[in-house]
Amino acid sequence: MRVAVGSTNPVKVEGVRRAFRLLGCVEVLPVHVETSVGPQPITLRDTIRGAVERAVKALSSVREADYSVGVEAGLFQLPPTLTGYLEVQVAAIADLEKGVTLGFSPGFEFPLRVVEAVTRGKVLEAEEAMEELSGIRGIGEREGAIGFLTRGYINRTKLSELAVVAALIPRLNPSLYPKARRIEEVLESLNSLGI
């Protein structure tokens, strides 16, 4: 089985590889793609859109793929939190029939100064502010902010893996779920979300 990944980020690619072990032996094929949401989505809608776009573009770029996966990390407003925002990774899995399933990682809060740098436009993405805060260059392609903030207990690869596993659940249990929604339907439904 071949799985295209809409990213060349090694932590996302490894997270996909680990998750797809649930379906047996797989070959993971990373491909660089661009999305319409930019480097740092700041709404749940844009984070989901970015994941779906990554999956769709990877599927069209790698013709021999059976599945494709897009993983997008983004912030979304959640007023009860300390900073007003939560960070989450969204995984979208697309198949040859153009069906999409979605999954999410556990969410966490960035430090307030990172959230403010992102939401005030001082940085293009949270990774820049986290690099400055942590002193770790390339943190987004290593342990991630979650690795730094949890003192290594959880890393970004694990967050990616968990999001992809969550998106795989309907595919692992097809008799328990309706058929996957089509790509166009998923993208269209995002327009009506107030998130």
Explain what the structure shows.
- Helix 1 (10-20) packs parallel to helix 6 (156-172), helix 2 packs antiparallel against helix 7 and helix 3 (112-119) packs antiparallel against helix 4.
- This protein has helices spanning 10-20, 44-61, 112-119, 126-134, 144-149, 156-172, 183-190; strands spanning 2-5, 27-30, 67-77, 85-95, 99-104, 181-182.
- It is globular, with a radius of gyration of 16 Å.
- The mean pLDDT is 95.
- It has 195 residues and is of the alpha/beta class.
- It has one domain (2-190): Alpha-Beta Complex (Maf protein), CATH 3.90.950.10.
- The chain has 7 helices and 6 strands, in the order βαβαβββααααβα.
- Strands 2-1-3-4-5-6 form a 6-stranded mixed sheet.
- The termini are far apart.
Provide a concise account of the structure shown.
By secondary structure, this protein is α/β, with parallel strands linked by helices.
Number of strands: 6
- Domain module tally: 1
CATH C-level class: Alpha Beta
**What is the CA-based Rg, rounded?**
16 Å
- Biggest sheet architecture: 6 strands, mixed
Architecture, according to CATH?
Alpha-Beta Complex
**What is the CATH third-level topology name?**
Maf protein
Mean pLDDT score: 95
**Beta content:** 15-25%
The global form is: globular
What topology emerges from the helices and strands here?
Blueprint: E1 2-5, H1 10-20, E2 27-30, H2 44-61, E3 67-77, E4 85-95, E5 99-104, H3 112-119, H4 126-134, H5 144-149, H6 156-172, E6 181-182, H7 183-190
Parallel strand pairs: 1-2, 1-3
Antiparallel strand pairs: 3-4, 4-5, 5-6
